[in-house]
């Protein structure tokens, strides 16, 4: 077969969602993030795992643009955004403390950002309903937040982030306030939502099991440094440092 007649069917190399280059953040004398290097591919479910105080939230806030780095660079989808404010980064963040507007219906809460952005009413409603369907709350649009369970409220917060169709969704310990059973349900659901939307998810958690079961790849943080990056199995089977071994619970 003549080689030049064969169409090139090799998959295109995956596009880069996040690239952090030599990223450092100091708060006074505290180095919260220490020369971080990280590449996350588009469509990945990626987790930042580490104990309290290891710099997870600061790293996330640097990516979202809520903090400016002391030095280094943040690139999103191939674009240097280091100097750009949060609203120009095509990123949404879901926090553990997901304050909803109590006087608005679920659908109005989800559509709020679109209203602020001047999207007209029928499109707003259609997109809010689509986002609510993604989190399986299509029948709850007319309720008020107070009429929902904790897990349902967290799903509304997720829908509110998804309605904008962000390129990247940042989640800072989003399930931390839920009890164990609900947390496990929401883990399965989050994973499904990531798969169906194809949006790149970056999850911050201190829960080893959560990170290892949900993620395509994990970065383990130790005192502001990224100690290891890799797929869950690799981190579990071949921890790069004694800290990683201890933190993911490997005893050999
Ligand atoms: P994690 O999310 O892993 O718990 P953080 O990123 O919140 O860690 O914090 C990392 C380090 O940076 C901690 O020592 C914390 O006290 C410090 N830190 C975070 N934010 C600030 C701030 N705004 N001012 C001063 N120190 C901070
Ligand atoms: Mg934190």
TrEMBL record:
Record keywords, A-Z: ATP-binding, Nucleotide-binding, Transport
ABC transporter domain sequence ranges: 18-248
Keyword Transferase: no
GO molecular function: ATP binding
Protein known as: ABC transporter ATP-binding protein
């Amino acid at each position: 077969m003549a080689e030049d007649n064969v169409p090139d069917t090799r998959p295109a190399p995956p596009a880069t969602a996040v690239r952090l280059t030599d990223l450092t953040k100091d708060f006074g004398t505290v180095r919260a993030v220490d020369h971080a290097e990280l590449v996350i591919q588009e469509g990945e479910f990626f987790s930042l795992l580490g104990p309290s105080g290891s710099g997870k939230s600061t790293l996330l806030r640097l990516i979202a643009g809520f903090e400016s780095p002391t030095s280094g660079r943040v690139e999103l989808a191939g674009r240097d955004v280091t100097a750009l404010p949060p609203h120009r980064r095509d990123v949404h963040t879901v926090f553990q403390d997901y304050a909803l507007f109590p006087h608005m219906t679920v659908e109005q809460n989800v559509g709020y950002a679109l209203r602020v952005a001047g999207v007209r009413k029928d499109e707003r409603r259609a997109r809010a309903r689509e986002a609510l369907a993604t989190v399986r709350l299509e029948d709850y649009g007319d309720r008020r937040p107070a009429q929902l369970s904790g897990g349902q409220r967290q799903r509304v917060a997720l829908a509110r982030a998804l309605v904008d169709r962000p390129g990247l969704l940042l989640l800072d310990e989003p399930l931390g306030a839920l009890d164990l059973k609900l947390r496990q349900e929401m883990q399965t659901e989050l994973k499904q939502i990531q798969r169906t939307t194809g949006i790149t998810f970056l999850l911050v958690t201190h829960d080893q099991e959560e990170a290892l079961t949900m993620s395509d790849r994990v970065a383990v943080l130790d005192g502001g440094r990224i100690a290891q990056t890799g797929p869950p199995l690799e981190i579990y089977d071949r921890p790069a440092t004694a800290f990683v071994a201890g933190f993911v619970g490997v005893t050999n």
